[in-house]
């Protein structure tokens, strides 16, 4: 009878190591609390500073006693890494915590079923809702996708597959558009479309401004995805007698399908929270408008901006609730993009 030897992991911490680490952590937390409570070093920043200092000191003492003086450098380096991670994570966690705690207070059922046509931002939070802003955001995203997704993917295909004479200039334009401030996109559509064409302030005009910002994101992300498609697939298609466009359409694009969907989602996430272009292009209606090509329209970013500018407790609460809804939308898009990207890498 043969026995399978269970593989050992000598680098993994054992129970004694875990208990020691938890003890050091507890001492650091208690010490930081004592420093904040009995000295002038108060507040969250004081607690974090004291915690890092005490944790490093205690960990260094424990490490020197167990492993000698060589452990001192490792302990200091480990503490610096932990501190850097905390400095990166804490602002994000603080934003999420503040948004959730302040935004959840304004959630109610009619928020998603009513508009502000019979209420104002100064009324109690239970009056009115943001249905008009949700519908406007949906129109803006859909029209911007119709304009920018085909243009961005076709541009990426030209830059990666065709590589014609104008590829260098187009690549330069795409890179330049990536750095265009969002307010410039809004002013561009306002002066070149709204003032001189039959299309006036509406969801369609706002979507054109957002498309200007979305095209570079979709193009550059699609480029990276298409470059990951193995060259052998292209050569196999050409070797079987297929033309270049059939090879691209039937082999390259299907192989990069999930990546192109990811590029689209990232493009939508890029524009979902933009406010500056919408100030010049959609007008900001308080009622529900089902026609995206006529009359003023609203959107979640505009709803938030309007609530913040009024500055009353009721309007600020509406703004925080709108920020929470918008944050959930954007985070959902990023999670979907990561999920599709991971599935593509697994394949």
Automatic annotation (TrEMBL):
Name of protein: Unannotated protein
ABC transmembrane type-1 domain location: 134-335
Location of the protein in the cell: Cell membrane
Family: Belongs to the binding-protein-dependent transport system permease family. CysTW subfamily.
A Pfam entry, by short name: BPD_transp_1
GO terms, molecular function: phosphate transmembrane transporter activity
Biological process, per Gene Ontology: phosphate ion transmembrane transport
Any one of the GO CC terms: plasma membrane
Membrane topology recorded in Swiss-Prot or TrEMBL: Multi-pass membrane protein
Record CDD domains: TM_PBP2 (cd06261)
Regions that span the bilayer: 21-41, 47-68, 80-100, 138-160, 172-196, 319-337
Keywords, in A-Z order: Cell membrane, Membrane, Phosphate transport, Transmembrane, Transmembrane helix, Transport
Organism: freshwater metagenome
InterPro entries for the chain: MetI-like, MetI-like_sf, Phosphate_PstA, Phosphate_transprt_permease
Gene3D superfamilies membership: MetI-like (1.10.3720.10)
């Amino acid at each position: 009878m043969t026995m399978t030897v269970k593989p050992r992991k000598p680098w993994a911490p054992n129970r004694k190591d875990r208990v020691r680490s938890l003890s050091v952590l507890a001492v650091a937390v208690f010490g930081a609390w004592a420093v904040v409570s009995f000295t002038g070093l108060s507040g969250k920043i004081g607690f974090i500073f004291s915690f890092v200092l005490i944790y490093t000191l205690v960990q260094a003492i424990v490490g020197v006693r167990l492993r000698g003086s060589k452990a001192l450098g490792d302990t200091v380096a480990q503490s610096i890494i932990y501190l850097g991670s905390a400095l990166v994570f804490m602002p994000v966690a603080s934003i999420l915590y503040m948004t959730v705690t302040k935004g959840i207070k304004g959630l109610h059922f009619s928020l998603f079923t009513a508009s502000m046509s019979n209420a104002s931002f100064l009324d109690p939070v239970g009056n009115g809702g943001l249905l008009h802003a949700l519908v406007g955001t949906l129109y803006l995203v859909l029209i911007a996708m119709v304009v920018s997704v085909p243009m961005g993917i076709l541009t990426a295909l030209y830059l990666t597959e065709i590589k014609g004479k104008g590829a260098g200039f187009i690549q330069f334009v795409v890179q330049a558009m990536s750095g265009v401030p969002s307010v410039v996109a809004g002013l561009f559509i306002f002066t070149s479309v709204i003032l001189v064409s039959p299309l006036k302030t509406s969801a369609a005009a706002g979507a054109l401004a957002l498309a200007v910002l979305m095209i570079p994101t979709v193009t550059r992300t699609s480029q990276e995805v298409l470059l990951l498609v193995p060259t052998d697939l292209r050569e196999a298609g050409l070797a079987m007698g297929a033309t270049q466009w059939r090879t691209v359409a039937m082999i390259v694009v299907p192989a990069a399908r999930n990546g192109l969907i990811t590029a689209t989602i990232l493009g939508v996430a890029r524009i979902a929270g933009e406010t500056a272009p919408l100030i010049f292009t959609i007008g900001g209606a308080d009622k529900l408008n089902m026609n995206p090509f006529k009359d003023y329209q609203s959107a979640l970013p505009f709803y938030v901006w309007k609530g913040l500018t009024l500055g009353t407790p009721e309007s600020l609460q509406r703004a925080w609730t709108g920020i929470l809804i918008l944050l959930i939308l954007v985070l959902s898009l990023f999670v979907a993009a990561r999920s599709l990207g991971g599935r593509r890498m697994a394949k």
